[in-house]
Write a structure and sequence with these properties.
By secondary structure, the chain is α+β, with helices and mostly antiparallel strands. The protein is built from three helices and six strands. It has a single domain, classed as Nuclear Transport Factor 2, Chain: A, CATH 3.10.450. A six-stranded mixed sheet has the order 2-1-6-5-4-3, covered by helices on one side. The longest helix is centred in the N-terminal third of the chain and has 19 residues.
Length: 141
């Protein structure tokens, strides 16, 4: 018999959607460029957060955070759709989730997709009770 997850797939999907909505709002300049608004991202990521984008270069939270903060309103017209969010594994209070992220830039007609794996943990200090530790992205054909 499988042990019930403390965090449901719907809660993980809601957090993935919440963070990507922040990216849409941030890149489009819908929200103000303030530390308070940026906290929606930074309070959801662990101090040791690492991202591996499709280029394969590992990016730590300090570099990623600085770049993201400066990217405010730098991609007007960007749209992001997140699909197929699913918890793949649960280990203690950690959850390995996968999802597809599709982006459409202003003026483009084709969506560009990537599949992502994300490691999250339960953390009451995070906006939705989940803290991001690691994301690995791979381009979809």
């Amino acid at each position: 018999m499988k042990k019930a997850l403390r965090i449901t797939n719907d809660e993980v999907a809601a957090e993935i959607s919440r963070l990507h909505q922040f990216f849409i709002d941030w890149f489009n300049g819908v929200v103000p460029k303030t530390a308070e608004e940026f906290e929606k991202f930074s309070s959801a990521t662990a101090d040791d957060f690492v991202m591996v984008p499709p280029s394969g270069q590992m990016v730590g939270i300090k570099q990623l955070g600085q770049g993201l903060f400066e990217a405010h309103n730098q991609r007007p017209g960007l749209d992001i759709e997140v699909k197929k969010m699913q918890i793949q594994h649960q280990m203690g209070n950690f959850y390995l989730a996968t999802y597809e992220e599709w982006q459409l830039e202003k003026g483009e007609t084709e969506w560009k997709g990537r599949v992502s794996s994300a490691l999250l943990s339960e953390d009451e200090s995070a906006p939705a009770g989940l803290k991001w530790h690691h994301v690995h992205e791979t381009w979809l054909p």
